[in-house]
């Protein structure tokens, strides 16, 4: 059977849409399928971390994401109807030239997904809604996916981006190992509410036997996100109705029940941290919540998910083109599973009050030094030096910026300082003067913004480039 598409992406959440965008801009025939009849309507993953903002800039949605949201407000602590004072929601970090973003940007998850969906359409990609996957079968040439309605889809590869309760993961028999972070369920809802300013994230600590309540104005909207810890009682469900939300808000704050005028979306969940036992089964890959489930406390789930897609997209493209061996796809799990494990641990520690949001949650320090794709040929590097596997930082020279040069699906050969001229077919060559973050040397920057190969000069880079498909996409 001939393939209908090159890549079938199951799930139109942030990970699935980001992957669809990345594949579409590379000319890969991809189809995103979504079980529901529309995009996710809630705000749950509302924090876009600095590293993800860099990814969005590269994918062509940075301006739209910035326009759709705004900065986080300071926290305001309340007690018995009185303001006790502001509370810093994270540790501030010093600005630096190599990082254009230093604070998280608030965008309700539904808005982020709308932006990605629009971009996917601009690139000629598509989402098929109302397609519930019920079967998946692999052979040596591809994957056949069966659906509750409509005919099957044949693809050369498939990606499960269908959430924490992933049907694909279950059908593949891939387990998840993890723990319940908190036995108590959490109610989260998008509401219209009166009586609170929109300049603060309003926090009502536990009192009188009730759990916490947090009411956060959602940037770019007229809504507030309500989050409330509920009691874990067997057989009792969380009331997600307007009256239920009113009762919770009135019991835990100074507001009247009528202050909650509308519920636009509501859900409940038990905070959990879990990691898939593997991120791949044959021609099927796991990405996003299908591969790792986080407590939302650290703001890492959506961001780690988008970066899964960003890592996988270029690799699928070059392997599908025949420019790189199929073994390149093995580096996806090798690179992303350790990152996901680290982020799960961080999210759990923040949820339990053992760590604070700060530099680690920005994800700017994540990298792949231990990867087989990180080839460092220089010796005697000082501590703190930029190495192969690290994120390639931004920088300015002669009115231009490195991120502008990196933007796009290509590889970049960056020559810094007094390095002999060099060209690499298929890569964009950029020369800049000596620059602090890089020092002097030659750096081959991957399409996803990490240094793949580094040397004192560009001599020796060609064999590496040939093995990873430089020049495709």
Helix content: 10-25%
**Domain module count:** 3
CATH class of the largest domain: Alpha Beta
Low-confidence stretches: none
CATH A-level architecture of the largest domain: 3-Layer(bba) Sandwich
- Average predicted local confidence, pLDDT: 94
Tell me, briefly, the overall form.
globular
Percent of residues in beta strands: 25-35%
Radius of gyration: 23 Å
| Sheet with most strands | 8 strands, mixed
CATH fold label of the largest domain: FAD/NAD(P)-binding domain
- Number of beta-strand segments: 28
- Counted by DSSP, the helix tally is 10
Instruction: Look at the structure and name the CATH superfamily of the largest domain.
Output: FAD/NAD(P)-binding domain
Structural class: alpha+beta
Distance between the termini: 26 Å
Question: What's the helix and strand layout?
Answer:
Layout: E1 5-10, H1 14-25, E2 30-34, E3 47-48, H2 50-59, H3 62-68, E4 70-71, E5 74-79, E6 82-87, E7 105-106, H4 109-122, E8 127-129, E9 133-138, E10 143-147, E11 153-160, H5 167-172, E12 176-180, E13 186-193, E14 200-204, E15 213-217, E16 224-229, H6 242-252, E17 260-269, E18 272-276, E19 280-281, E20 284-286, E21 292-293, H7 301-321, H8 330-351, E22 375-376, E23 396-397, E24 400-401, H9 402-406, E25 411-416, E26 427-432, E27 441-445, E28 451-455, H10 461-467
Parallel strand pairs: 1-2, 1-11, 2-8, 5-14, 11-20, 22-28, 25-26
Antiparallel strand pairs: 3-7, 4-7, 5-6, 9-10, 10-11, 12-18, 13-16, 13-17, 14-15, 15-16, 18-21, 19-20, 23-24, 25-27, 27-28
């Amino acid at each position: 059977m001939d393939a209908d598409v090159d890549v079938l992406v199951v799930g139109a959440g942030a990970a699935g849409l980001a992957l669809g965008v990345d594949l579409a801009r590379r000319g890969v025939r991809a189809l995103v399928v979504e079980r529901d009849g529309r995009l996710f309507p809630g705000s749950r993953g509302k924090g876009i971390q600095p590293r993800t903002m860099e990814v969005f800039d590269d994918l062509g949605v940075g301006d739209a994401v910035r326009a759709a949201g705004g900065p986080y407000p300071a926290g305001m602590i309340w007690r018995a109807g009185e303001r006790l004072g502001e509370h810093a929601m994270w540790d501030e970090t010093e600005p630096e030239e190599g990082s254009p973003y230093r604070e998280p940007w608030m965008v309700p998850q539904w808005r982020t997904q709308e932006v990605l969906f629009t971009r996917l359409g601009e690139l000629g990609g598509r989402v098929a809604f109302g397609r519930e996957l019920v079967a998946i079968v692999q052979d040596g040439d591809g994957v056949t996916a069966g659906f509750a309605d409509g005919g099957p889809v044949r693809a050369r590869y498939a990606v499960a981006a269908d959430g924490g309760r992933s049907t694909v993961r279950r059908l593949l028999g891939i387990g998840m190992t993890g723990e319940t972070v908190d036995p108590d369920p959490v109610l989260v809802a998008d509401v219209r509410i009166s009586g609170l300013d929109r300049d603060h994230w309003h926090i009502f600590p536990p009192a009188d036997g009730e759990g916490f309540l947090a009411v956060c104005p959602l940037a770019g909207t007229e809504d507030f996100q309500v989050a409330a810890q509920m009691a874990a009682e067997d057989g009792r469900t969380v009331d997600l109705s307007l009256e239920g939300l009113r009762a919770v808000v009135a019991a835990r704050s100074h507001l009247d029940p009528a202050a909650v005028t509308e519920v636009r979306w509501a859900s409940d969940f038990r905070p959990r941290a879990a990691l898939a036992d593997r991120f791949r089964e044959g021609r099927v890959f796991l990405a996003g919540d299908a591969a790792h489930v986080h407590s939302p406390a650290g703001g890492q789930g959506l961001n780690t998910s988008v970066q899964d897609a960003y890592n996988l997209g270029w690799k699928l493209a070059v392997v599908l083109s025949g420019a790189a061996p199929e073994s390149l796809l093995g580096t996806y799990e090798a690179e992303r599973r350790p990152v996901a494990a680290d982020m799960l641990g961080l999210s759990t520690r923040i949820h339990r009050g053992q760590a604070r949001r700060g530099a680690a949650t920005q994800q700017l320090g994540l990298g792949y030094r231990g990867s087989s794709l990180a080839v460092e040929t220089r010796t005697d590097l000082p501590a703190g030096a930029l190495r192969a596997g690290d994120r390639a930082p931004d920088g300015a020279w002669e009115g231009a910026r490195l991120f502008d040069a990196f933007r796009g699906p290509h590889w970049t050969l960056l020559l810094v300082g007094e390095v002999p001229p060099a060209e690499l077919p298929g890569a964009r060559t950029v020369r800049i003067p000596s620059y602090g973050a890089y020092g002097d040397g030659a750096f081959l920057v991957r399409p996803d913004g990490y240094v793949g190969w580094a040397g004192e000069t560009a001599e020796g880079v060609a064999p590496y480039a040939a093995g990873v498909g430089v020049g495709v996409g």
